[in-house]
Design goal:
The complex is a heterodimer of chains A (295) and B (281). Chain A has 295 residues and is an alpha/beta fold. Chain A has helices at residues 2-20, 23-47, 63-76, 89-98, 142-149, 176-186, 201-210, 239-243, 263-273, 275-283; strands spanning 54-58, 82-87, 103-106, 118-131, 139-140, 167-171, 196-198, 214-219, 228-229, 231-232, 250-257. The longest helix of chain A has 25 residues, at 23-47. Chain B is built from twelve helices and two strands. Chain B has helices at residues 2-42, 44-49, 63-94, 97-112, 115-133, 141-165, 169-177, 182-193, 195-211, 214-220, 237-244, 250-280; strands spanning 53-54, 59-60. Chain B folds into two domains: 2-49; 63-279, MetI-like fold, CATH 1.10.3720.10. The longest helix of chain B has 41 residues, at 2-42. At the A-B interface, helix 2, helix 6 and strand 7 of A face helix 1, strand 1, helix 5 and helix 11 of B.
Chain lengths: 295, 281
């Protein structure tokens, strides 16, 4: 579609260049053609329709990871086109059921009526609630964390800490990490609008590392020694505890399909489950089911 | 033949000028097409004066962000304008040639520093300083105002200086002939005469401050509530778009475009006002 437009504009401007018949003017018109092309390509970039061979749709939490995986996969298999779309877990499962997409992505456990679908867990996403290492608190209950984030608890002294205000840090609306936190912790309450908003795991971690009174949440894989991951109801936030199910702040990332995938789809799923694909996911901070088996 | 040549070059330049203009038109039309539906759906007053921004639950009120933009920009003006005006008076009237040849390019260099660098500097120095000496989380209106005050200096200084330098020579000579001192001349003759230019400089500086995004995202804290003190975090219209555009879709995405419409209208009003002031004379 883009090339047709380009040709048309080329043709139009070639005429005026021919009429001018002088090199200088040709340069001038070449410049104007370039500028026109630029604006045209801007226009068509907005409405570009990708005729993908393989459509993967669903959870916006899984989406960024699926995009990384598909980019890697398309480098290895240049003839394959994979189109990753958002929409949410339920929409993804629905798309897989109706066949509008080959694969659906879900960041929640399937409901009973959805269990008839074929599905595979590609990784687990763990959440760590982090505070500054200077903060004496080691352990909070799920309820306490919810009360901090809904601003029912606003001072560390209410939790047995120092007599200072809690600086609550959250992620931006639309972030998968925030979605996970809301669904796993917040229940019916919502995050207080007074919370500081940062737009990446790294920014939250940096802020908590700098501020003794801050509390934040990040992907478990990104915790380092500059911050302290809180124990949840006495269970340490470690990858082992996520895998054995004792640490509750985690959720599965599922790929769903109408029936067991074949052909191109199967190859993509196999790539994700291979050691190479799992390594990509681990580098991005996810927890791989392979970790427990020592591969 | 010669007329023909003139005509063609004129047409080519017109075309190029129009292509720049068409980009502006394209962007404006695009933003309006994307943003107007959600304003219509939520209702204009509920959108602009709504107090709750919770896109996940269908609440789209941007008043906290409008409030944030206004307070941060006012803070930047309060901190930055006096410094900028004094600096432009110094450059135009007091500074010896040697000194102004150093100071002027140095100030212009301020404008060349990328905004992300200002933000990073603010995050590493200004934010911890506020947190340790004044309290609060550090990410605050005060931090945003300080960073923006520095960022609007070059705009205000250069425009105000030009408007002082472009005053007719006989204003100053007449004042001296009447026996006024240098300071009296500046205060009662030059500043009033250059008033429209200086006001325009301030308005353009404010326009720059209200449109700044990257540096503000990094130091403002981006909380979506109306702040209670200048040490509280806040969110501006620009940072609302900047921070949430990543995975926004559907109504949420439209609401971000609608935020852009409000911002565009505010900046257009400011620029139109600056033009009006400079032309009034």
């Amino acid at each position: 579609m883009l090339s047709v437009l380009m040709l048309r504009f080329n043709g139009k401007n070639m005429k005026s260049a021919n009429g001018a018949c002088m090199p200088k003017r040709q340069i001038c018109s070449a410049v104007s053609v370039l500028i026109l092309l630029f604006s045209v390509s801007l226009l068509s970039a907005c409405g570009g329709i990708n005729e993908a061979g393989l459509i993967v749709a669903g959870s916006t939490s899984v989406q960024p990871y699926a995009e990384v995986l598909s980019e890697e996969y398309m480098i290895l298999h240049p003839d394959v086109l994979i189109d990753i779309q958002g929409g949410g877990s339920s929409a993804g499962i629905m798309a897989a059921q109706t066949g509008t997409s080959e694969l659906g992505m879900s960041s929640r456990v399937l409901k009973d009526e959805e269990k008839s679908l074929w599905y595979v867990e590609i990784a687990r996403d763990g959440l760590a609630v982090i505070i500054n290492p200077e903060n004496p608190i080691q352990n909070l209950t799920l309820d306490q964390i919810r009360q901090i984030y809904s601003a029912e608890i606003t001072d560390w002294s209410q939790l047995g800490g120092t007599n200072t205000k809690i600086h609550t840090i959250t992620r931006e609306d639309g972030s998968g990490t925030r979605d996970a936190f809301v669904s796993l912790v917040m229940g019916e309450s919502s995050i207080t609008p007074r919370a500081i908003v940062q737009d990446s795991n790294g920014a939250v971690r940096q802020l908590v590392a700098d501020d003794e009174n801050a509390i934040g949440f990040i992907s478990l894989g990104l915790v380092d020694d500059k911050v302290k991951a809180l124990q949840l109801d006495g269970v340490a936030a470690t990858r082992e505890n996520v895998l054995n199910g004792s640490y509750n702040l985690s959720r599965p990332f599922l790929f769903v399909a109408l029936s067991e995938p074949t052909g191109e789809t199967k190859q993509f799923v196999d790539f994700i489950l291979s050691a190479e694909g799992q390594k990509i996911l681990m580098n991005e901070g996810l927890i791989s089911p392979l970790e427990g088996t020592g591969t | 033949m010669k007329i023909n040549k003139e005509k063609i070059s004129g047409t080519i330049f017109l075309l190029i000028a129009l292509s720049a203009l068409s980009v502006l038109a394209l962007i404006t039309v695009f933003i309006f097409i994307k943003g107007v539906p959600i304003i219509a759906k939520v209702g204009f007053f509920d959108f602009v004066f709504g107090m709750v921004w919770d896109p996940g639950n269908g609440a789209f009120g941007i008043f906290p962000m409008i409030f944030g933009s206004v307070t941060v920009t006012l803070g930047a003006a309060v901190l930055g304008v006096p410094i900028a005006i004094c600096c432009s008076i110094f450059l135009a009237e007091f500074a010896p040639a040697v000194l102004s040849n150093i100071v002027r390019p140095a100030i212009q260099l301020l404008a060349a520093i990328p905004s992300v660098v200002y933000g990073f500097w603010g995050l590493l120095f200004v934010v911890p300083a506020i947190r340790n000496h004044l309290g609060g989380p550090g990410l605050s209106i005060l931090a945003g105002s300080i960073i923006l005050a520095i960022m609007i200096l070059p705009t205000i200084i250069s425009i105000a200086e030009v408007s002082l330098l472009s005053l007719p020579r006989h204003y100053k000579e007449g004042a001296y002939a009447l026996g006024l001192t240098q300071w009296q001349t500046i205060r009662s003759v030059l500043l009033p005469a250059a008033k429209s230019g200086i006001v325009a400089a301030i308005i353009l500086g404010i326009g720059r401050a209200i449109g700044e995004t990257m540096a503000v995202i990094m130091v403002l804290g981006n909380a979506v509530a109306i702040p209670q003190s200048i040490l509280d975090p806040a969110r501006t219209l620009t940072t609302n778009i900047g921070i949430e555009m990543g995975y926004a879709s559907g109504d949420h995405q439209q609401a971000l475009f609608a935020t852009g419409i409000v911002l565009l209208v505010i900046v257009m009003i400011l620029n139109a006002f600056a033009q009006y002031v400079t032309r009034r004379k």
